[in-house]
Known about the structure:
It is a single chain. The protein is an all-alpha fold. Helix content is 85%, strand content 0%. The chain is built from five helices and no strands.
Amino acid sequence: LSLYRAFRRTLLVASFVGGAAGVVFILLQHDSSSNGLAANRIAALVAILSVPALAILSLERNVLAVLEKPRVAALTTLVAAIALVASTYAGVKWGGITGLYIGNLVVNVAIIILVARFVRLSMPTGEPQASQSPLSVIREEKGVVRFCTLIHFLALGSPAAYAVSRIVTLDSGGSAMAGLMGAVFGIGVAVRTVLSQANALYLVPLAS
């Protein structure tokens, strides 16, 4: 329970700090900027506000898996995906790109509230513990930092390998060969999407 709270607080702080930096950057853009951000300032701001919600939703889903409720975690992922598709369609029809981000933000917040409530009810009850800083709690858990670092390296490894292989293919075989490789890679991405969810919901909780 203490580790869950530490991760949640750390994730919230990191998300809000990164979001605040993004908000400042967008607000500093002049109307004459050529990057298009100034023209879509409201949409960009709403998108940045969605970052903490997306981060917390991923955390809560994995916590459900750790609590030995992988089916609930998988159902949460499915419901969230369907709701996001519906909110995306309604948002685009209602307000364009800004409506898309507003709809996604509303859906993410609603799902987080429901999932967080379920997580709290599923948490084992125990004696209340003294308040500790998130960093001290994480340090007490042996191997957590190393495990998280390895997971991040693995997450970055696949896109990096794809970028290098596509650049080499484009340079040696031309655009047609690079396009063919991209199509084949799309099949691998589809398979990896399923396997990565299975890994997060079943194997990682068992290993941890």
